[in-house]
Write a structure and sequence with these properties.
The protein is α/β, with parallel strands linked by helices and about 200 residues long. It has one domain: NagB/RpiA/CoA transferase-like (Rossmann fold). The protein is about 25% helix and about 25% strand. It contains 6 helices and 12 strands. The strands form 3 sheets. The chain has a 6-stranded parallel β-sheet with strand order 1-12-7-4-2-3, with helices on both faces. The chain has a 4-stranded mixed β-sheet with strand order 8-5-6-9. A two-stranded antiparallel ribbon has the order 10-11. It is globular, with a radius of gyration of 21 Å. It starts with a helix and ends with a strand. The mean pLDDT is about 90.
């Protein structure tokens, strides 16, 4: 046995748990809520986000109404966002990739999400169709996110067990904000200052 093998063997023995010695961690925290939609909306409002709860058949019209209400003219739209949602605005597609100045000069971004967590009011984007690169949702000042009811899970454990850990995950809990040492809330520090979420049944 070489010195290297001896050292690695001792390291493995030191960090490997003894048979049957694994700790049983109590899981007494709440992992499920029966009112996922209501809880998500409540949390989003706590964060200062706007919400619209609509029937699936009204989704396209609601997206167009939200953009019209904001007076949006140029919206960043990742691949996978239906053209029908963007009637009346100029879609800024990310092919070829948009530069930060174009993103900053847009009226906002519209995305879908991979999953939404009711208990924490968190939207999770994973870079797949409808979400695009992380920068798309971090630079524009307004983010409109479409969430389908079947994408809402109760809590973080359920989300973690569902998400693909190798994808570039962006977790969004309300509009971007920070509070400095004097407890002054400042918006738009590392993402949009306005977050609007459309929840479709």
């Amino acid at each position: 046995m070489s010195a290297r093998e001896d050292i690695l063997g001792r390291v493995r023995a030191a960090i490997a748990p003894s048979a049957g010695a694994a700790l049983q961690i109590p899981r007494e925290y709440r992992t499920h809520t029966d009112d996922r939609v209501e809880t998500l909306i409540e949390r989003l409002h706590d964060y200062g986000a706007q919400t619209r709860h609509v029937a699936k058949g009204d989704l396209g019209a609601t997206v167009r109404a939200a953009l019209h209400d904001r007076g949006a003219v140029r919206m960043v739209a990742p691949d996978g966002i239906p053209d029908a949602w963007l009637e009346g605005v100029e879609p800024l597609r990310d092919t070829p990739p948009l530069d930060p100045h174009t993103l900053d000069g847009s009226d906002g971004v519209i995305t879908t999400c991979a999953i939404a967590i009711a208990e924490t009011g968190t939207l999770v984007l994973d870079g797949s169709a409808g979400m695009g690169r992380r920068i798309l949702s971090l630079v524009p000042d307004y983010h409109l996110c479409v969430v389908r009811v079947e994408q809402i899970v109760s809590g973080v454990p359920a989300a973690i067990s569902t998400l693909d850990a190798v994808r570039p995950l962006t977790l969004i809990s309300g509009p971007s904000a920070t509070v400095d040492i004097e407890l002054v809330r400042v918006g738009g520090v590392h993402g949009p200052r306005q977050l609007e979420v459309i929840i479709a049944e």
